[in-house]
Structures are given as C-alpha cells and as structure tokens.
Write a structure and sequence with these properties.
The protein has 197 residues and is an alpha/beta fold. It is built from eight helices and five strands; from the N terminus they run H-H-H-H-H-E-E-E-H-E-H-E-H. The strands form two sheets. The chain has a three-stranded parallel β-sheet, sandwiched between helices. Strands 1-2 form a two-stranded antiparallel ribbon. It is globular, with a radius of gyration of 18 Å.
C-alpha cells in the first residue's frame, strides 16, 4: 500500500471514529481512560520488553545520553502513564461548557460552548509516554487522534496503541479513535499535515 493510500485510510477511519467520540458521555470517556490504564498495568512487562527493541536499535544507531533516557520505558514511567490516565479521567469534562454570555442589542443572548474539534493530528519526539498523554487528552476532549511519534520509538508506540485500542473496545468506543502511524518514513509527516478531508 502506498503511503498516501495508507494515510488516507487512517484519516478516514479517524474521522469516522471522531463522530462516536464526540457524542460519548463523560462516563464512557472516563471508563475508557481507566480501562487503558488497567491494560497498560497488566501489560507492563510486555511494554518494557517491546521498548527494549527500540533501545537496541537506537544504541546500534549511535544514540546515547539524554535521548536514550527519554526513549526508555521504565517501571516508574509506566506508573506515571497510569497515574496520568487516572488524573485525566478525574478532570471535569470540558465538552459542553458554556461561557461568555452577552445580550446583543436585539435582545438575543449569545455565548460560547466548548465542542470537540474532530480529528487532531499530533507529531512528537521519541518519548513513548507522550503517546498515552496525547491520546488521553484527545479522548477526554471528545476528539479522535492520529499520532506520529519519533521513528526511534516505533515499536513502543505501536505496543501502547494496542493497549489504547483494547481499552477503547472494552467500553464500546471505536478502536480507530486513537491511531499511531505505523511507518517511520518522514514522507508521512507531510501527508499528515496536509490531509484536508
């Protein structure tokens, strides 16, 4: 499958999923976040093991120091991801919040209401924990998301994407509400930022 076709496919899937996430209740979104945290906790050994593949590749390519540290998934970083998911679940739901009401000269009252954006694309460096942080914030705010992490963390990000998809499926939300780009090719970044539909 060509890169353009692949990105079109995940973009359309994300757009379709965004409709379900946008109308999901606060309870369902929170349950999804908590299910994801449980699944990450259950699969922590597998996540550390999978992250080892990324670490070996990075070391083979001469990566050292702080960059290697940011790439590493440790027990404490996994605990941090779990805690972060629980904290986001505990936050008030921003969707539907009303503010800035004013009366117009005609007597009509107008104001602002927070609504989901739809599909959010996020490009970030090789820190696997950002995959979970970005996904959790998008889900809480009623959006689906396409994530493109650094190529050095591709195995770790895919493993976390599986945990997220499993958590979404458990509560009846579409698994495509959070997608991690599966290829490391830089061309995909350009395609992601230009997908108008």
């Amino acid at each position: 499958m060509k890169h353009q076709d692949y990105m079109q496919e995940i973009g359309l899937a994300a757009r379709e999923a965004s409709r379900s996430v946008a109308i999901a209740s606060t309870q369902v979104k929170n349950e999804a976040l908590l299910e994801i945290s449980n699944i990450i906790s259950e699969r922590r050994a597998w996540l550390v093991d999978t992250n080892g593949q990324d670490l070996k590749s990075a070391e083979k390519n001469g990566v050292t120091g702080a960059f290697l540290d940011r790439l590493m998934l440790t027990e404490s970083r996994i605990d941090g991801m779990i805690e972060g998911l629980q904290q986001v679940a505990a936050l008030p739901d921003p969707i539907g919040e009303l503010s800035d009401f004013r009366y117009r000269p005609t007597g009509i009252q107008v104001g602002k209401m927070r609504v989901p954006l739809g599909v959010v694309g996020i490009i970030y460096e090789s820190r696997p924990n950002v995959t979970v942080e970005a996904a959790s914030l998008c889900l809480k705010s009623g959006n689906s998301t396409i994530l493109r992490g650094g190529s050095e963390a591709i195995h770790s990000n895919q493993a976390l994407a599986e945990c997220i998809a499993a958590g979404l499926a458990k509560v009846g939300l579409p698994e495509h509400a959070v997608q991690v780009v599966k290829h490391a090719d830089r061309e995909l970044v350009g395609l992601l930022v230009t997908m108008d539909p």
